[in-house]
């Protein structure tokens, strides 16, 4: 007989006649969640899916779609919020096609904002008004609001994600999740506005007051995490540009030793002084739209000297438990995974995975000595805004990891630079993985016992 399909919110029935008896098979479908990742330099929309009917009280949350919103980050539209509507709608229209129509009104939308929004104070009335207008009024989905993730939350999410996907919390035994206690890895994340370091200290009890207690699958972990605001790659470079202008006698032509030889660009003062990280460096004659001409000289030694000025090493007065800026930090131990900006910079230097500190230094020095014309043939993917800044990024990473976090020639190989956080069963990009943990924490308010897992693992 004919197959009859009856749509329902959570399941479908398929019925046919078996002789004279009706036989119906109920197939449970999926539920969906949408996350807008509002970073400092761009906005990305993610779609997550999990089964409506959980097996053994455990659901499978998987990322099924990703769309980069064209243009800069949401904060850049504060003066003209209407300009965000079209690029955001373009992505959300694609999302609509990925989610069954009858589930649209029951699909939750969250906005997760990290360091860029913390810096720009996006929780302003104007920001909220713009956000609710764009998401609450014009879309069929259920907007559940925006959450600005704190620095410690961002660091812990990265640590949980890295270790979860490395299999350090759960093992699969006969298709069931079994908790396991293993040695964990530290996590190093370099974003646009901030950088995070998270790990379990060598002596957790001694540093109990400076750690966060995280309970996962019956085990307690005392995790040290710190987020350094204004030490993200983009904000740190803005501080460098501000310092270079300060030390120059004129804005007509400012030498930048971290830019490639013979590279020239004109940037408005607002570009690098419009941030909270550089407000204190603004000159008395600050004019937002005034152009400053930067000329690349490609001098590695001078670039290192200038980058070192971005860190306040004297505030620690030689204390071993204080890396820079007077902040206490317990001694790190074990292996680390470095992703996001760390990975992309190393990839530009043709480095990945494990390598020695000497290899890094020699690659950095060679890269920073190249002319702008030579770089165009060296980089596998050439984009001006990134290519001009890789030398700065490499030197910044050197000072952060070596002089800030005290990695040396012996411990440097314990850092694994990688694009994906993965093992045989999981594969997620570093930033995407952190967003997945974010959506998981949101979804568990609505649905109990959901677990992050790869739907194709079995």
Which of globular, elongated, flat, extended, rod-shaped describes the shape?
Answer: globular
Q: Give helix % range.
A: 25-40%
Straight-line N-to-C gap: 34 Å
Give the strand content. Answer: 25-35%
Rg over CA atoms, rounded to whole Å, is 25 Å
Could you walk me through the main structural features you see in this protein, from its secondary elements to its overall organization?
With 458 residues, the protein is of the alpha/beta class. It has 2 domains: 33-148 and 424-452, ATPase, nucleotide binding domain (Nucleotidyltransferase, domain 5), CATH 3.30.420; 151-420, Exopolyphosphatase. Domain 2 (Nucleotidyltransferase, domain 5, 2-Layer Sandwich). The chain is built from 13 helices and 22 strands. The strands form 6 sheets. It has a 6-stranded mixed beta sheet with strand order 8-7-4-5-6-22, sandwiched between helices. A hairpin with a 2-residue loop joins strand 2 (11-18) and strand 3. The two termini are 34 Å apart. The model is unreliable at 1-14, 422-433 and 443-458 (pLDDT under 50).
Could you name the key traits of this structure?
22 strands, single chain, Nucleotidyltransferase, domain 5, 458 residues, disordered N terminus, GDA1_CD39_NTPase, UDP phosphatase activity, alpha/beta, GDP phosphatase activity, ATP-binding, ribonucleoside triphosphate phosphatase activity
């Amino acid at each position: 007989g004919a197959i009859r399909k009856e749509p329902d919110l959570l399941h479908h029935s398929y019925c046919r006649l078996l002789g004279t008896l009706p036989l119906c098979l109920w197939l449970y479908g999926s539920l969906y969640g949408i996350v807008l990742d509002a970073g400092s330099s761009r906005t990305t929309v993610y779609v997550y899916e999990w089964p409506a009917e959980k097996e053994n009280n455990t659901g499978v949350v998987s990322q099924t779609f990703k769309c980069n919103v064209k243009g800069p980050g949401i904060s850049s539209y504060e003066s003209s919020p209407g300009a965000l509507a079209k690029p955001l709608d373009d992505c959300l229209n694609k999302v609509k096609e990925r989610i069954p129509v009858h589930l649209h009104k029951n699909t939750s939308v969250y906005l997760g904002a990290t360091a860029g929004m913390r810096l720009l104070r996006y929780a302003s009335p104007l920001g909220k008004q713009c956000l609710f207008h764009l998401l609450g009024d014009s879309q069929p989905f259920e907007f559940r609001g925006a959450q600005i993730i704190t620095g410690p939350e961002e660091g812990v999410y990265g640590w949980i994600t890295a270790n979860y996907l490395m299999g350090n919390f759960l093992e699969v035994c006969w298709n069931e999740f079994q908790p396991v206690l293993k040695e964990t890895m530290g996590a190093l994340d370099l974003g646009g506005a901030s950088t995070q370091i998270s790990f379990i200290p060598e002596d957790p009890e001694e540093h109990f007051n400076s750690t966060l207690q995280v309970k996962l699958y019956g085990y307690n972990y005392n995790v040290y995490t710190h987020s350094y605001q204004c030490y993200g790659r983009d904000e740190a470079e803005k501080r460098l540009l501000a310092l270079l202008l300060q030390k120059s006698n004129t804005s007509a032509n400012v030498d930048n030793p971290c830019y490639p030889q013979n590279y020239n660009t004109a940037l408005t003062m607002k570009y690098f002084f419009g941030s909270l990280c550089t407000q204190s460096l603004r000159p008395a004659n600050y004019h937002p739209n005034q152009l400053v001409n930067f000329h690349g000289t490609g001098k590695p030694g001078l670039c290192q000297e200038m980058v070192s000025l971005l860190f306040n090493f004297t505030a620690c007065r030689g204390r071993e438990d204080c890396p820079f800026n007077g902040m206490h930090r317990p001694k790190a131990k074990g292996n680390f995974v470095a992703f996001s900006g760390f990975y992309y910079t190393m990839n530009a230097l043709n480095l990945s995975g494990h390598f020695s500190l000497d290899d890094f230094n020699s690659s950095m020095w060679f890269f920073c000595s190249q002319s702008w014309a030579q770089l165009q043939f060296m980089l596998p993917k050439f984009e001006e805004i990134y290519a001009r800044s890789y030398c700065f990024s490499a030197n910044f990473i050197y000072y952060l990891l070596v002089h800030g976090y005290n990695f040396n020639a012996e411990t440097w190989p314990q850092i694994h630079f990688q694009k994906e956080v993965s093992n045989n069963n999981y594969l997620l990009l570093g930033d995407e993985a952190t967003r997945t943990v974010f959506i998981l924490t949101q979804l568990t308010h609505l649905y109990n016992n959901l677990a992050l897992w790869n739907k194709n693992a079995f």
